[in-house]
Amino acid sequence: MNTPVLAGPKAGRRFWQTHLKALATSGFSRSEYCRRHNLSYHALTYWVRKQQEISLVKPALALVEVPVRPSLPLRSGAAALHQGVGLAARRPVNRTGGTQGDPL
Hints:
Elements: H1 9-26, H2 30-37, H3 41-57, E1 78-83, E2 87-92
Antiparallel strand pairs: 1-2
Helix pairs in contact: 1-3
């Protein structure tokens, strides 16, 4: 007896993401791509729009290399961390190189 396997939402998302990538590289219009792959034009258009909304809301993250110049001297025995605009943390450094007091 053959039991049908029900796919969850993640399987459906992967299915459409695969087709969206293939569509982008195929050179076909949406309607031609759907005809060749026996897909619903309206369903494909829904997923194209959904992917565009996700791209606008959630920009892709990337790792970037940050150069470190350890030869710069620290002023007044303090270490500083600057992140973004207007956010800074400054901690006094003891002679062994660690920070004094409670963690940030």
